[in-house]
């Protein structure tokens, strides 16, 4: 199996895989080994959990002056998303006019190109968010 295929086939790479506490039911992303609420009661009870990928914009901002490695990508919108499962993620809002982005907007995760490694030519993908249909 080639290296590129190996990385593409890792389930967590293209899914939002977090963990769910078997004691209290809270969902975490990124995954946690121990629930910060239940602590000892959660040891050995944290289960892998695939998030649905849908949520709501809690707050957002438009970036006009990005860090150096994002040059050429500006401006872009970053939002704090409360996922339907209750955990929070930060992500870029894509395929949406800035004027249409608002607090309370329903969004869904989509996987897009994040960057390209110029020396190896490998393209890295990750999650971003778009307006839910």
What does this structure look like?
- The protein has about 130 residues and is mainly beta.
- It has a domain at about 50-130: OB fold (Dihydrolipoamide Acetyltransferase, E2P), CATH 2.40.50.
- Helix content is about 5%, strand content about 40%.
- Strands 6-5-4-7-8 form a five-stranded antiparallel sheet, with no helix packed on it. Strands 2-1-3 form a three-stranded antiparallel sheet, with no helix packed on it.
- It starts with a helix and ends with a strand.
Report a brief summary of the structure.
Helices cover about 5% and strands about 40% of the residues.
Relative strand content: 35-45%
* Cα-based radius of gyration, to the nearest Å: 17 Å
Number of strands: 8
Largest sheet: 5 strands, antiparallel
What's the average pLDDT? 86
Write the layout of secondary structure elements.
Layout: H1 3-8, E1 17-21, E2 27-28, E3 46-50, E4 54-63, E5 76-83, E6 88-93, E7 106-116, E8 123-131
Keywords:
single chain; 133 residues; mainly beta; OB fold (Dihydrolipoamide Acetyltransferase, E2P); five-stranded antiparallel sheet; three-stranded antiparallel sheet; 1 helix; 8 strands; 42% strand; globular
């Amino acid at each position: 199996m080639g290296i590129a295929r190996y990385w593409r086939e890792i389930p967590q790479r293209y899914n939002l895989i977090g963990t769910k506490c078997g004691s209290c039911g809270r969902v975490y992303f990124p995954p946690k080994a121990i629930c910060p609420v239940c602590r000892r009661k959660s040891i050995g009870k944290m289960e892998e959990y695939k998030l649905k990928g849908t949520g709501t914009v809690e707050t957002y901002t438009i970036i006009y002056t990005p860090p150096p490695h994002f040059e050429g990508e500006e401006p872009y919108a970053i939002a704090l998303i409360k996922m339907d499962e209750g955990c929070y993620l930060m992500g870029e809002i894509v395929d949406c006019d800035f004027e249409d982005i608002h607090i309370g907007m329903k969004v869904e995760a989509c996987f897009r190109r994040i960057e390209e490694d110029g020396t190896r030519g490998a393209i890295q993908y990750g999650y971003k968010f778009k307006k839910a249909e």
